[in-house]
User: Fold this.
Amino acid sequence: MILIQRLLTCCFFAALALPVHAVPFQDEGGDAKKDEKQDDKKDDKKDDDKKPEDRWFAVVGGDVYTGTGAVLRGATVLSKNGKIEKIDFDVYMPPETKTLDATGYRVYPGLVAISSQGLLGNSGGDFEDTIDPFNSRMILGLATGITTTGSGSSAVKLKRFSVDDMVINDKIFSIFSWSNRSPRGKYDLREKFKNTSEYLRQYREWEKKVKDQKDLAEPSKKNVDGSCLSVLKGETTAKFVNNDADELLGIARLAQEFGFRPVIEGAQEAWTVADELGRAGARVILTPRDRRPKSELQAREGGTSIENAAILHRAGIPIAIVPSTEGVDLGGIAGRDIIHLPIEVGFAVRGGLPEQAALESITITPARIMGVSHRVGTLEVGKDCDLIVTDGDVLHYKSFVQYAVVDGKQVYDKERELFYAQIRPRPVAAEAKKVDKGETAPVKVDPAADAEKKDGEKKDDEGKDEEKKDDEKKDG
Amino acid sequence: MVIRNTSRTLVGAFALALVVPCSTARASDTSFPTPTPPAAPTATLIAGEKGAPGLAIKTRKVLTVPLEGTQYFDNAVVLVKDGKITAVGPAASTPIPAGFETIDAGEQWIMPGMIDLHSHVGGTFDINEMVYLTNPGLRVSTSVIPHNDTLKVAIASGVTSILFIPGSGVNVGGQGVLIKTGHDKYEDALIRNPGSMKLAQAGNPEGWTIGVGRSFMNWNTRAMFSRGMLYAQKWEAFEKGKGPKPERNFDLDIFRELHAKRTQISTHTQIFQVVMTTLTMVRQQFGIDVYIDHGEMAGYKLAGFAKELGVNAIIGPRNVEVPTRGFINWTGSNPEGILGIAAEYQKRGMKMIGFNTDAPVIPAEELFLQAGMAIRHGFDATNLESVRGLTIVPAVTAGIADRVGSIEVGKDADFVIMSGDPADPRTAVQKVFIDGKRVYDTAKDKRLF
Assistant:
């Protein structure tokens, strides 16, 4: 099954890439086409054998913060087979719809961490082979509200209990180095872009002429750099990790000269060159709490600023935010790691970033940077039903994620997991617990949980049990 | 080995006694005359400062947080004259005297300046002497760099006072000093020296030289305290005319302060057994004023006992206890869920709960977030316990509540004007006053935090 999924994923991307490089990479394209045909046949067979029923899921009664700026109070989010079908009031739901009551809570799109470490429980290699969809850090990620994360050059969904279709883009970045410490490196990179863009120009000319002159030789790929080529063709995004204003200016010039939009991670001094970066169409991944003094060798402004995000936002630069620790810190100091992503965003607001831009910095902006905004990042009809239900403003330090939903499936419930259940428990669950202890109390079970059990979500329950056992082992 | 170590300590004490004369002059800041500083250049006086006209600040909400009584006023006025608070109350009942300059802070909130009782960023970093296992005579006051760059950022988040203490590499690292963050001269910045005696009972001293265990550390600390308290008692007897004049031992002089309850022991104590020793040995056996100054891990299990003994808990830098087989499992505790340490102390009846950063472990400017993280993890702040834990609780704990920790008449005018809830990272600090002096003002200065 995993193998098929992988093939499918490969095909999906190969197919996406096809129109762009149909001719120059004929071999690759051909293979992909064959695979696709085979897989299609398999799929058809499956469909003939057994027609899966539509899977309906709805979150009802919550204040829906769609992430686009629109807020629908007390609305319903209805999903069909994991995709959002409708967001509205008084929605007709098929009788078999599983519902999650979010009355009194807020509903947000699942958060998108542009990068993180450890949430997937993998250590290199193909995700489907190495990922651990039962690992406790994934629970902590979902507890934070993260439903999609960047990992290396891929965008991956935190699909608990399953590795199917979890990678939604596996070819995001081409990473380049641009350092003041290596003028030669900068020269080389510029040369690569120059040669590659020259090749691309010649190739496009050849592409037009070859229709008439069939013998015309294809331009030479000598000196063409693969990474530069994919960036200039728009297949991947150029990513730099830089902080110095001088280097940022260099990247801005390079990007403008060769016509690509760079993503810059770090960007500590970006606030001093915000206009230049804005003109170059740069996108920035930053940490508001980064701290670096100004170089003693420069008279002009420099170093970090708490206002970095706000200044860049005013210059029209999309911002994605990552915390100072990209992994899960279980050392006892809470507030600085990936499971406190919204806290980090709070510091950007402190520096003047508007709240809506702050929310976007951990939802739609990182989704756009990773090229997955058609699937995740906001609550919109047709997108994946990845959402979180919180007991308050998602950016407030006191708010907890009560439920997390990925692909129209509830994958996290605060009351049912080890980590935060004991903190401000939901009233309903508190009563249910009383009953568990054998005390006489009115039986009032969470309707959502009840519905889930009835529908025999065995897969999920099994997963939970296993996870619990695992944790018990750890405790022992 | 025991003998060798003890003799080392003794030799150390002797060596210290030899070198003491040069450092004594700086030691007790009151008992020795200090040279008159050169006259400051005459500058235009700014309202609120010493010798200047008074300052009145009108604002939406003032969190006064005295130890007892009304915790806040809405639509309030704060009056400042000569660096002290002269009045605070609702605007309707607090007339602004003639000649006072008025600032209208609009919808902002005002809270007392925050106090961090566990900080290592008050000066240079040579504050973790590890030659001997107990060093009651060492002072970090000689390392203070007033208003240094780190403190400037701390001010920008509203931290106005810190207890600058030695590191925890050995059992007794030396004497801390209580300073304000925003004055350029040590004399102005000083609140009290010695600010505390730093005791570290577990977690770090184990790495001292060839390694020591907890039994030896407890034995050795107890031995040092016995000598010290005996020395203090002899001096007390002499001062009351009941005994001969003891020979001066500069290494043990701190115990005279401790015995007279003019200073406290701030202790790096964290896990159950070690907090137990803090309570039974330092508090019960020696009767010394002590507070938990590195409150972490399973120490909260003793919150009820600590409260009984009047030992306050200053929580941090760790703010949660995590279920993990990871590195903190040596604490002997592995809870079922992520527990907020402050919340667990509170659950067991502890009222006096404060917060620290152990800066630079947590940056000095993120003291407020310790309160935020406590609330996130279950700490009940309905009655402003979070604000109290940043202000009046540490002030009372360190015995400096007569000067700082709340906005009350007669106290130092140390306060912060901010855009809202102090525990929220989204809240922006606008202005910070220390002794009536505007040490940070976003209207004029670059935003530092």
